[in-house]
Amino acid sequence: MSPAAMLRSCIQMRAACARLPMCGVRVWMPAAVGSQPLSVAQSAGQQNYEDANVTKVKLEEKQRSRRREMERTKQTWVPRWFQRGQDPCIPSRSIHQYKGGYWEAKMQGEWDNVIDLYTT
Questions:
Q1: Which residues of 41-72 are buried (b: 16+ CB within 10 A; e: fewer)?
Q2: pLDDT digits (tens), the chain, 120 positions
Q3: Number of CB atoms found within 10 A of residue 110's CB
Q4: Burial bucket for residue 2 (CB in 10 Å: 0-12, 13-18, 19+)
């Protein structure tokens, strides 16, 4: 199956899952970051844990640096593809709900407004 066909399939599955009642249903969707040590190492062509861990530590330090800069300038982080909502099954619990846009941006290669933490 081609990458484009796989992506179309994922989008169709997401649309189908959106129509399911959410109580007790857990839907797995691939994450952009995934398990960071492994995905970072594989994307860089590295295969051992030590190299992956060094890369992961660099990424985490960039994230911390970004957080410190936001705190210094009093900016508030607003998630791009998720919003906080009320759990339909347990009203006292809040959850993060996918609000759309990620898969469309991925298909179009449209990452202009995304903070790049991966380049060194």
A1: beeeeeeeeeebeebbeebeebeeeeeeeeee
A2: 666 666 666 666 665 555 555 544 444 444 444 445 556 555 555 567 788 888 889 999 999 999 999 999 999 988 889 999 998 889 899 999 999 999 998 999 888 888 877 775
A3: 11
A4: exposed
Beta strands in the chain (DSSP E): 82-86, 94-98
Residue type, 104: E
Query: Do 111 and 19 touch, CB atoms closer than 8 A?
Result: no
List of residues 6+ apart from 37 with CB closer than 8 A? 49, 52, 53, 55, 56
Tokens of 26: 């857990």
- Close Cβ partners of 120 (under 8 Å, ≥ 6 residues apart): 58
Say if residue 40 is exposed, middle or buried (CB neighbours under 10 Å; 0-12, 13-18, 19+): buried
The pLDDT of residue 9 is 66
